[in-house]
């Protein structure tokens, strides 16, 4: 089943066809890999996949001429829930 983020990216591909190639890679490879890692319920698998997923954000920003938008893995928990 497709989640809300896939639908949003599909809408983005329709509205910004020039960015379709990068978006399709993210949709068809990077998101499923992250979902698989989440399903594994394993901290090491998650951390490694999350690093790759974050790199995928930056790879697209570079490919789409906005390399100054850099995403980093958070080092501090921002949720007020302990
Ligand atoms: C398909 C390519 C693509 C992928 C994948 C992508 N981005 Fe972006 N992102 C862009 C583009 C292009 C912009 C610049 C805004 C625009 O042109 O619409 C942007 C802008 C942003 C911004 C700035 C938004 C603003 O206006 O303040 C943030 C934050 C951001 N991206 C986060 C992420 C994160 C986090 C990920 C990974 C989970 C990600 N992006 C993955 C293409 C992408």
How would you summarize this macromolecular structure in one to three sentences?
This protein is mainly alpha-helical. 66% of the residues lie in helices and 0% in strands.
Description:
The longest helix is centred in the middle third of the chain and has 21 residues. This protein has one domain. α1 runs antiparallel to α2 and α2 packs antiparallel against α3. The protein has 82 residues and is mostly helical. It starts with a helix and ends in a 19-residue tail after the last helix. The site of heme C has 11 residues, from α2 and α3.
Q: What descriptors fit this protein?
A:
single chain, 82 residues, mainly alpha, 3 helices, 66% helix, 0% strand, globular, binds heme C
Beta-strand percentage? under 5%
Please tell me what the overall shape is. Answer: globular
Distance between the termini: 31 Å
Structural class: mainly alpha
Helical stretch count? 3
Which ranges are low-confidence, i.e. pLDDT below 50, for 5 or more consecutive residues?
A: none
- Overall pLDDT score: 91
Describe the secondary structure blueprint for this structure.
Blueprint: H1 4-15, H2 20-40, H3 43-63
The structure holds heme C (HEC).
